[in-house]
């Protein structure tokens, strides 16, 4: 069965410092992995996705993630946090079922950015 | 429309009341999903439509939950005899793709926050 574990429920950083949001996955086959961001009262927005091409994936707003099969990890990073990055972040793995992708979400990590 | 539209944005229901939540996907999107997001948790899959066909309803928590998409566009999620544990944000997502390996992404709506009192 596919699942994701987000290792931190809350992360707090200062503006301008690096961001690291950790995610481990479990999958019986090569997964597709995503990171989504959710700002208050807004829809989920795709940050980036890994689909078995390059293991280092670059996304929007300066975020990137590295797929490490040996560690079953897909951590999200950003070199320098902005205040606007404060939001809830979800690591997602897909489960292929009946010819379509079902998204399996982690519990989320709330990122706080302080001046 | 430009995005996935959900209505109402907020709904307060008395326990035992029936509710109907609407999702208006992006025009032409074949796939439509409903997810339930409880407070402090990630979204959980409820059901999936491909056009008007409901191909997967394995995530619906009980037979009080019913979803339809009769003409392959707008979808309605109905909850009968609401209970307090139904309080959550209900998210709708649509996609142009229909295959398992489609490269088309998913567009999520802003959700309907249901509070059962």
- The amount of beta strand of chain A, in percent, is over 45%
Quick one: which chains have the greatest interface? A-B, 23 and 30 residues
The biggest beta sheet of chain B, please?
Answer: 7 strands, mixed
Radius of gyration computed on alpha carbons of chain B = 14 Å
Backbone shape of chain A = globular
* Low-pLDDT runs of chain B: none
Q: Name the assembly state.
A: heterodimer
Structural class of chain B: mainly beta
Total count of strands of chain A: 12
Q: How are helices and strands ordered from N to C of chain B? A: EEEEEEEEEEE
> Could you estimate the helical fraction of the residues of chain A in percent?
under 10%
Radius of gyration of chain A: 14 Å
Uncertain residue segments of chain A: none
Structural descriptors:
heterodimer; A: 115 residues; mainly beta; 6-stranded mixed β-sheet; 4-stranded antiparallel β-sheet; 12 strands; B: mainly beta
Architecture blueprint of SSEs:
The complex is a heterodimer of chains A (115) and B (117).
Chain A: E1 3-6, E2 10-14, E3 19-21, E4 23-26, E5 33-38, E6 44-50, E7 56-58, E8 64-68, E9 73-78, E10 87-97, E11 100-105, E12 109-114
Parallel strand pairs in A: 2-12
Antiparallel strand pairs in A: 1-4, 3-9, 5-6, 5-10, 7-8, 8-9, 10-11, 10-12
Chain B: E1 5-7, E2 10-13, E3 19-24, E4 31-37, E5 44-50, E6 53-56, E7 65-68, E8 75-79, E9 88-95, E10 107-108, E11 112-116
Parallel strand pairs in B: 2-11
Antiparallel strand pairs in B: 1-3, 3-8, 4-5, 4-9, 5-6, 7-8, 9-10, 9-11
């Amino acid at each position: 069965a596919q699942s994701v574990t987000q290792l931190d429920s809350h992360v707090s950083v200062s503006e301008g410092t690096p961001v690291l949001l950790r995610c481990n996955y479990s999958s019986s086959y090569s997964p597709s992995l995503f990171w989504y961001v959710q700002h208050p009262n807004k829809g989920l927005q795709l940050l980036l996705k890994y689909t078995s091409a390059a293991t280092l994936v670059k996304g929007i707003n300066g975020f990137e993630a590295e797929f490490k099969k040996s560690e079953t990890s897909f951590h999200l990073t950003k070199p320098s946090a902005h205040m606007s990055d404060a939001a809830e972040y979800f690591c997602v793995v897909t489960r292929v079922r009946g010819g379509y992708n079902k998204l399996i979400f982690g519990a989320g990590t709330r990122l706080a950015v302080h001046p | 429309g430009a995005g996935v539209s959900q209505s109402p944005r907020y709904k307060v229901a008395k326990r035992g009341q029936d509710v109907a939540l609407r999702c208006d996907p992006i025009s032409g999107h074949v796939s439509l999903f409903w997810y339930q997001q409880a407070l402090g948790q990630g979204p959980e899959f409820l059901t999936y439509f491909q056009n008007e066909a409901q191909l997967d309803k394995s995530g619906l928590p009980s037979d009080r939950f019913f979803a339809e998409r009769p003409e392959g566009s707008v979808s309605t999620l109905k909850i009968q005899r609401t209970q307090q544990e139904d309080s959550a944000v209900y998210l709708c997502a649509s996609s142009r793709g229909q295959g398992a390996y489609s490269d088309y992404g998913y567009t999520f709506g802003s959700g309907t926050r249901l509070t059962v009192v």
